[in-house]
Amino acid sequence: MKNLMMIGSALLVLSSSVFATEARLLALGMKETDNDGMYYIQDSRNIFLNVANVNNYADQLVTEYGAAGKTFIKASLDTPELPKAQGGVFKKYGSTVYGVYYGNESNTSSLLRIAASNDVTGAKTLQTADNQIDLFVAGEAAVKWGANLLYSSGKDETIGSKDNALATRFGVIGSNWDAHANISLASKSERTDTPMEFKGKLGLHVGGSYNVASGKVFGYFKTFGWDQRLSTTASMIKGDFTSYYLGYGQEMAVNGSDKLFVSIAARKTDINIAFTAKAEVRQLLIPVTLGYEAKANEWLTLRGSVVQNLYGTKDNKNITTGVDKLNPYATALVTAIYGGTGKSTVSNSTEVNAGATMTFGQLAIDGLIGTTGTSTTTAGTQTTDNGKSGILSASNLQTKVGLTYKF
Amino acid sequence: MKKTLVIAGLAVLSTSAFASKARMEALGQGSYSYYLNDSRSVFLNPAALNDMKNYVVTEWGVGQVADSSTAPRAEGGFFREMGSFAYGLYLGNNGDTRTTTGAAATFLDHQNAMDLMLAGDMGVKWGARVHYANSKDEATNTITRKNSAFGLSLGVTSGDLEGYANLALSDKSEGAKVAGDMWERKPGMQIGGSYKMSGMTFFADYSSTNEEVTAATGSTLATAAGGTFTPGTAGKITHKTSDMTFGAARVHEVNPGARIITDAQLVLSSDEVSGSVTTTQNGKVKSTTLPVTLGMEADATSWLVVRGNVHQNVILGSSKSIAGKTTTIANSTTVDAGATLNFGKLKVDGMVGTTGTATTTNAGVTTNNGKAGVLSTSNLLTRVGVTYSF
Fold it and tell me: A298: which DSSP letter?
């Protein structure tokens, strides 16, 4: 009996760790700007939230299909409709796991650079982080620990643009708790043909979770400050971003392979940019998430979720375009994520997602499903056919595809 | 005798295991059925929760108010047993739209709606559902627009007999073009019941709504969705609807994996407007229809269930306009089809027979859900709903 239980537990752990990629967590209701993981669902993507998770996902190669990041310089972030290419490999040597990952460019970083671009026509923007590389090292002593170094650098002398970013992550995982500190050490982007500049200050993303009953209480605090150049003068103005997050989530095993997920959380986000008429974002959301994941057969796993705000308000000011204001792309992006100017409840927040993993031995192909091939989205130079419309389409069977190979 | 019991058990099992709007619509039933066992039945009679629980359902679509088979709305929830009770939470069942109108004048509809359900069995199966929606917008038109809605549903099932009452207790939208504009729904109801006898189900349903739309001083409300009326300038209209349905249905179990359904319904409807500044809109429109539905549902394989129906008004099918002119309701024949992909505890429902040539704009996304009688692999299932039983 004991052996059977041990085998069952081992299989459970194995089946959890097989899954990976952004697509899985997006299908299960992840709502993080940087798609960097979830506290109460085990997934290899969580290495970007708490780097100590690298210990749980050694000896695998991950690739996320998408376009090269720089094509999105003007208008878009990494989204399910317009994914950016990224991927990496993690290998265990002795008791230490090492990893390298390319292209995990932060949406928050891109959003802030776009917001700091001062061309009122939106034709010219600051370069966003490009060709990013993340290096990982992790091990296990009394607790699991991990560390990461992020570096990104890009230059285009034809327009006089330069960008660089440097950050580090530290994380630990105890028996019934975990904690992380993700620190942005340097972040700078500038352009000289139309003078504009973004200069980041120390950024902090600290958080963790604690097992309570059969679930987890989790939370984080995220803050980042920066200076950006005004369009009309050489003077710099200040901006800051602060987010608080507190919630409870539970992952319930239905049997050896199926799971249910439920969570409730509160997220408060404040953003300020000190234009003459200060641009402000004030958003408070309390989303509830219900999700499931089931093994349909030996090679197919299906999952899905429904998310809705039990409470959601925003009170934003001066999210408008113009001189000494936001540029059009920034206005559109901020409005899409946090809502436009004014005070209101957040309308129509119900969101349903679905996804699937096809497992072929050591190879797993993840993707979102329920999208079709005929509605198109264009951003930057990219036109894709990933518009969601509630259709199971054989010609667009999976989107936001990620591939994991375990070795 | 034992064999009969086993077949009956399997039939109940296979029928009640299905769920989602797609199944109901493929069988010609609208968003729920008066006589078919389906998880959608909880929205008609919450006592049905006693028979269908321990599952999560998600209906694919876009977060919005309106919902149709070609432009579906995202919604979903879970239903779970708790001792001798069952409870459920359902998100996104937003209700009707009120896209009224006029220049820069729109009332808020139900948004982020939530339905809480509780059911139990005390010899008589009972259930209750509370519907709640609340929204506010101070950012549009420099006025405060608000909506709040509260509804209560009660239902019982005892043997072959069931009854229900769905009450819209309050539903008010304030502010459209100016702050004083108001759309207020007086308490409305839907009451009905059914009785099973000799393999047949006989059912009756009565529903009514009564709403007032007021254009405040300084406002002009042009036309309104949900009816044809024009409050005009500083005007007020009253809009009343009622529907009476009497029907009989039979589900014939051909074998444990296949059934044929038939139903006939006499539907008497009226739609009355008063106070519209367009005087030709004032008055009552009456219609009488006798739709007959012939449908089937069959296990094609162990992993595939196929279903469909043909539906048409028979003998009766006309409406009488405000001017007193009677017109036959033309071209009432409809055919729908759907399928369920079975993966053990997981079922993927959808409608089939749509193609990529007719397009619909759904919340800014242009989709290809238009029905055109084609079995298209690039549009394999539409209005998809996924149910996971645990």
Answer: T
Beta bridge mates, B339: B306, B350
- What Å distances lie between residue A109 and A204, A222, A273, A316, B205, CA to CA? 13, 13, 15, 21, 57
Number of other CB atoms surrounding residue B195 within 10 Å: 14
Residue of chain B whose alpha carbon sits nearest to that of A81: B365
Has residue B1 been placed in a domain?
no
Q: Residue B65's closest chain A neighbor by CA?
A: A348
B357 touches chain A (CB under 8 A): no
Q: Which amino acid, B337?
A: A
Q: Could you give the 3-state DSSP secondary structure of residue B179?
A: coil
Backbone angles phi, psi at B198, to 5 degrees: 55, 40
Instruction: Give B-chain residues touching A308 at CB under 8 angstroms.
Output: 91-92, 112, 114
Contact B365 A389 (CB under 8 A): yes
**CB spacing of A391 vs B61 below 8 angstroms:** no
Q: Which residue does chain B place closest to A305, by CA atoms?
A: B58
Residue-range definition of the domain harbouring residue B314: 8-389
Between B63 and B99, whose confidence is greater? B63
Helix (H, G, I), strand (E, B) or coil at A402: strand
Q: Is residue B2 part of a domain?
A: no
Distance (Å) from the C-alpha of residue B197 to the closest C-alpha of chain A?
39
Predicted TM-score of the model (pTM): 0.87
Q: What's the start-to-end Cα distance of chain B, in Å? A: 31
Structure tokens at A198: 């973004």
The set of residues, in sequence order, having a beta carbon less than 8 Å from that of A130 and lying 6+ positions away, is: A69, A70, A105, A152, A153, A154, A163
Which pLDDT score, from 0 to 100, does residue B37 have? 86
How many folded domains does chain B comprise?
Answer: 1
- DSSP string over A156-224: ETTTTEEEEEEEEEEEEE-SSEEEEEEEEEEEEEEETTTTEEEEE--EEEEEEEEEETTEEEEEEEEEE
Quick one: which of A154, A233, A239, A224 has its CA closest to A190?
A154
Residues 267-286 of B with CB under 8 A from A: none
Domain annotation covers residue B198? yes
Q: Give φ, ψ of B116 to 5 degrees.
A: -110, 135
Q: Are A230 and A198 in contact (CB under 8 A)?
A: no
Query: Contact B388/A292, CB-based, under 8 Å?
Result: yes
**CB contact (8 A) between residue A373 and residue B345:** no
Q: Closest residue of B to A318, CA-based?
A: B139
- Domain assignment of residue B118, yes or no: yes
Q: Among B202, B185, B180, which residue's Cα sits nearest to residue B193?
A: B202
Which residues in chain B touch residue A373, judged by CB atoms under 8 angstroms apart? 378
- List C-alpha distances in Å: B125 to A101, A214, A277, B45, B87: 57, 32, 61, 11, 13
pLDDT at A77 over 90: no
Residue B200 tokens, joined: 């047949």
DSSP β-bridge partners for residue A148: A136, A169
* ipTM surpasses cut 0.85: no
Is B74–A347 a contact, with Cβ atoms under 8 angstroms apart?
Answer: no
Q: pLDDT per residue over B238-290, tens digit each?
A: 989 999 999 999 999 999 889 999 999 999 999 999 888 888 888 999 999 99
The answer to whether residue A297 neighbours chain B at the CB level (below 8 Å) is: yes
We report the CATH number of the domain holding residue B99 as 2.40.160
d(CA B47, CA B13): 18
Residue B204 has pLDDT above 50, yes or no: yes
B380 sits in the region (left: phi over 0; alpha: psi -120 to 50; else beta) called: alpha
Least confident stretch, A235-244, A319-328, B217-226: B217-226
Closest CA to A356 of A405, A290, A300, A291: A300
